[in-house]
Design goal:
By secondary structure, the protein is mainly α. The protein has 21 helices and no strands.
């Protein structure tokens, strides 16, 4: 029983999604239409990208790149800006979760001698950077991958929708970083970038797989073929990588597909959700994201949205705000709070909320002007 409750606590989002799918099945009995609920293309490309990025992370590509960049700076502000920029730009292609898993521990290491309040602010800025930078490309986060599959547009058109919010976020982060002291630091002594050795013979084939994933996202290569090639490659070369794939995320998506599919077949609920969401996609997505996070919000609201592009803006902007608005935010919070030498959790949560609300308010104002 303890293991069961530990699993529920550890996989809270999946547990809620599974429970919702199970309850909905009592109202819509399982039939052949259930198979049509699941977007297998999204699941295939998610699996492929998670496996490829897990492999690149395992081989230390991101750590080596970051270390070599950071060793060239000589002030606390420049180092902080670079650490935030790493999360902002890398999240566009390796997802916000992986960006934070990789660069938050790296930041805490390099900032070990910095004032504790500076460390806290940098981690918060990194979190905001990962959540806002990841919005630009379809592969930046799971909700983008899913919604892009629902949109009849090119990658360029997709980027044009979110580019104003990405640029505005970058400007806001640049202004926020001015609050970091511009004191001198000997970063190279801590970084030791030259010690990071890479096995290019292993990395190059994985980068080729990453290109295959990009071609699949752009609808050049079938997603099923991409998943078969990726899975087959790692079965032959490195099965440990397949153990690093977040299969619970794939199961969570599947459970939400079943739940939303069933909701769309219950006429009173379908009509109520359509009336609530249609024409209010941005605010509906932002509001629901604050409670259940932006990935489930995208899955829940998309069948009832009139404008998928507006929903896309809503779930990405909605990743700001509360700690659960984007589940990636929980990653940096957990990493930060595990070190007892850092600022107390209450201070982190307080500043996190203030900074996120400011960013959210400005981006919402921008959406009102653009939309």
């Amino acid at each position: 029983m303890k293991r069961f409750f530990a699993f529920i606590k550890r996989e809270a989002v999946f547990s809620v999604a599974f429970l919702c799918a199970l309850v909905s099945a009592f109202f819509v009995r399982p039939d052949l239409k259930y198979a049509d609920y699941i977007d297998f293309g999204t699941l295939f490309i998610l699996f492929s990208l998670m496996a490829v990025v897990a492999s690149l992370r395992k081989y230390g590509l991101f750590d080596a790149f970051a270390a070599r960049l950071c060793s060239a700076v000589n002030s606390l502000r420049m180092l902080s800006a670079l650490l935030v920029a790493l999360c902002f730009f890398s999240s566009m292609v390796i997802t916000n979760d992986v960006a934070l898993l990789t660069f938050v521990p790296f930041a805490l290491l390099l900032l070990s001698s910095a004032p504790s309040n500076v460390k806290m602010l940098v981690v918060i800025f990194q979190t905001v950077a990962a959540n806002t930078g990841s919005m630009l490309f379809p592969i930046g986060n799971p909700q983008n991958l899913y919604l892009f599959s629902k949109m009849n547009c090119t990658v360029f058109d997709f980027m044009c929708i979110l580019l104003p919010y990405t640029v505005a976020s970058a400007v806001l982060l640049a202004v926020a970083l001015l609050f970091v002291p511009n004191t001198k630091m000997n970063v190279a002594a801590v970084c030791k970038g030259g010690s990071h050795r890479l096995s290019y013979l292993r990395i190059i084939p994985v980068l080729a797989l990453f290109v295959l994933c990009l071609l699949s996202v752009m609808r050049v290569v079938p997603k099923s073929i991409c998943a078969l090639v990726t899975g087959g490659f790692f079965i032959i070369t490195d099965r440990n990588v397949l153990r690093r794939v977040d299969y619970m995320l794939l199961l969570t998506f599947s459970a939400f597909f079943v739940f939303t599919g069933n909701l769309s077949r219950i006429e009173p609920i379908r009509m109520a959700l359509e009336n609530a969401v249609q024409g209010n996609e941005i605010l509906s997505a932002v509001f629901s994201s604050q409670i259940i996070s932006n990935v489930p919000s995208a899955l829940l609201l998309s069948p009832f949205a009139e404008s998928i592009p507006r929903l896309l803006v809503g779930v990405n902007v909605g990743g700001l705000g509360t700690l659960v608005a984007s589940l990636a935010s929980l990653i940096s919070y957990k990493i930060y709070s595990e070190d007892k030498n850092n600022q107390p959790k209450k201070s982190y949560l307080g500043w996190f909320s203030v900074i996120n609300i400011v960013f959210l308010a400005i981006l919402l104002l921008l959406s009102a002007i653009i939309a």
